[in-house]
Every structure is written in C-alpha cells, then in structure tokens.
Design a protein that fits this description.
With about 150 residues, this protein is of the alpha+beta class. It has four helices and seven strands, in the order βααββββββαα. The protein is about 25% helix and about 45% strand. The chain has a seven-stranded antiparallel beta sheet with strand order 1-7-6-5-4-3-2. This is Polyketide cyclase.
Length: about 150
C-alpha cells in the first residue's frame, strides 16, 4: 500500500477493566453494540459476510467511514482483530489479560488514512487528529467500563 509518511498512524494503549476477561471479550466481540457504549462510534450498519460499515466522529467536526471485518477471534488466547478499509486501511487488535478479578485490555492499531479531511489537510493537522483519536479511545474506555457494570 503506497502512502506518505504522515498518513500512516500507529496507536496503542492499555485499559484496566473491572470485569472478567470472558465478559470483556464478549462485549468487544459484539460490534453491533459499540454505538450503545462508545459515543464516537456513531453508527454501525451490518453488511455482507460479517462486515459492517462504521461511522466514527470524535471532537473534531469530521467523520470517518470505515468498513470493519472480523479478523482473528481467539477467546481462549484473549485476542481479537478487526480489519479496516475505507477512510482507514489497516487493523485494530485487542489482547486481553486476566488480572485478579479484572482484565488488562491492550489495544494496538496500525492504519493508513486513505480518505477524508485528514488526508486533505496533510501533515500540519496530524497532531490534531492524533489528539482526536486519543480522546475517542479515552471515551471508549469509560464507555466499556460503564457498559460492563450494567
């Protein structure tokens, strides 16, 4: 995949969730529920063959449209992978580790921006879009914690 240096994004982090790994895995393995607990996932419309089209928007006034497809689904090994295409091309991986009665949830994402406002604005807007992504992930962590408490 051909791209410029500034269009490639790599993100990662870790969340601690006070729920068993099996419950966390089940929640992450149901993308249709994401808009119910993750505010920046504005919509998820199921498509063919287990794919869906998602609309994402954080605090910047810009929306990304991304086709998401299931990749690795390994509950015993605590690994989930989502393959991305559309305005983002790449993958997102979740790794779950039981810690006491809770779960350490490590996420990693590697993608290339292929469309939309981030691509048009170029490298000058990169810090703003990275902050936008960080805000979205913090919100996702809060939302998942609340969802699993219900």
């Amino acid at each position: 995949m051909s791209h410029t240096w500034w269009s490639r994004c790599q993100f990662g982090g870790a969340w601690r969730v006070a729920a068993p790994a099996a419950r966390v895995f089940a929640a992450l393995n149901e993308p249709a529920d994401y808009p119910r607990w993750w505010p920046e996932v504005r919509e998820l419309v199921s498509g063919d063959g287990g794919s869906a089209v998602a609309r994402f928007r954080s605090f910047l006034p810009h929306e990304l449209r991304v086709c998401v497809r299931a990749g690795v689904r390994d509950e015993a090994g605590g690994r989930l992978e989502v393959l991305l295409s559309g305005d983002l091309e790449g993958w997102l991986r979740w790794s779950l580790f039981p810690v006491g009665r809770g779960t350490l949830l490590v996420h990693a994402q590697d993608c290339v921006v292929t469309g939309g406002l981030p691509l048009r604005l170029g490298p000058l807007a990169r810090p703003a879009f990275r902050a936008n992504h960080a805000s979205m992930m913090r919100s996702g962590e809060r939302g998942l914690r609340a969802w699993l408490r219900e």
